[in-house]
Amino acid sequence: MGDVFKALADPTRRHILDELAERDDQTLFEICARLAAKHQFTSSRQAVSQHLDLLEAAGLVRTRREGRYKFHTLDTRPLAQIAQRWLRDKPQENP
Amino acid sequence: MGDVFKALADPTRRHILDELAERDDQTLFEICARLAAKHQFTSSRQAVSQHLDLLEAAGLVRTRREGRYKFHTLDTRPLAQIAQRWLRDKPQENP
DNA sequence: TTGATAGGCAAGTGATTACTTGCCTATAGT
DNA sequence: ACTATAGGCAAGTAATCACTTGCCTATCAA
């Protein structure tokens, strides 16, 4: 469960989640290409692959094999609870 | 802004936030004592102090000086948005 | 003023982490 | 069969991070 927090700690992984939030079922190479295009992030294939493994271990990404393609999909369920943990009934004043 | 995610990545810091969510305006020593009591966490004073600095830099903790005491208070405002980032309109099916 | 309490600063250490490098497997097109 | 494409595995490197260690300042009580 703490894996979700660790997974979100890295900016590259957050960009990957952004990418998957925009479009589901992307392959590793698609994600790499889009990361390089949108951000100036020149992350290598292996780096992104390891990030995806970590995101999958945290339950934030689900994968599906199809031939030589592996599609990655965002799973937002683990995100729902994490912020609620410290949000108390006591409302906070606005800035 | 990414500091919030990094701040939440460490389990000790999450325990500190738990502690401050239960009771506001705690000093460094109070937090240390409560961490040691509730969890088996034997974190040193300096370790907790550095965690509090990091939490304050992330905007999750606000401090107030009073004589030789420094009181720490939880600020939940940065937490409100972080999970929303990837929560799309597209609803996800239940497990 | 002396001693105790609350906290701060900064260099150093050990572990974790992000990323690279090199090579290997499998599927698909020709 | 041959080649290109999509991806995997594992060891090594460099940077980050959590924590320690040692000493210092400030406030308060006696």
Please identify the oligomeric state.
homodimer
Count of runs of 4 or more consecutive helical residues of chain A: 5
The major beta sheet of chain A can be summarized as: 2 strands, antiparallel
**Weakly predicted, low-confidence segments of chain A:** none
Shape of chain A: globular
Spell the H/E element sequence of chain A. Answer: HHHHEEH
Strand order across the largest sheet of chain A? 1-2
CATH level 1 class label of chain A: Mainly Alpha
| CA gyration radius of chain A, whole angstroms | 15 Å
End-to-end separation of chain A = 31 Å
SSE map:
2 copies of one chain form a homodimer.
Chain A: H1 2-8, H2 11-22, H3 28-38, H4 45-57, E1 61-66, E2 69-74, H5 77-82
Antiparallel strand pairs in A: 1-2
The structure holds a DNA duplex (30 and 30 nucleotides).
Written description of the protein model:
The structure is a homodimer of 95-residue chains. In chain A, strands 1-2 form a two-stranded antiparallel ribbon. In chain A, strand 1 and strand 2 (69-74) form a beta hairpin. Chain A is globular. The first copy, chain A, has five helices and two strands, in the order ααααββα. Chain A has 95 residues and is α+β, with helices and mostly antiparallel strands. Chain A has a single domain (2-83), classed as Winged helix-like DNA-binding domain superfamily/Winged helix DNA-binding domain (Arc Repressor Mutant, subunit A, Orthogonal Bundle), CATH 1.10.10. Chain A binds a DNA duplex (30 and 30 nucleotides) through residues 10, 12, 27-29, 43-47, 49-51, 67-70.
Which tags fit this structure?
DNA-binding, homodimer, 13% strand, two-stranded antiparallel ribbon, 95 residues, 52% helix, alpha+beta
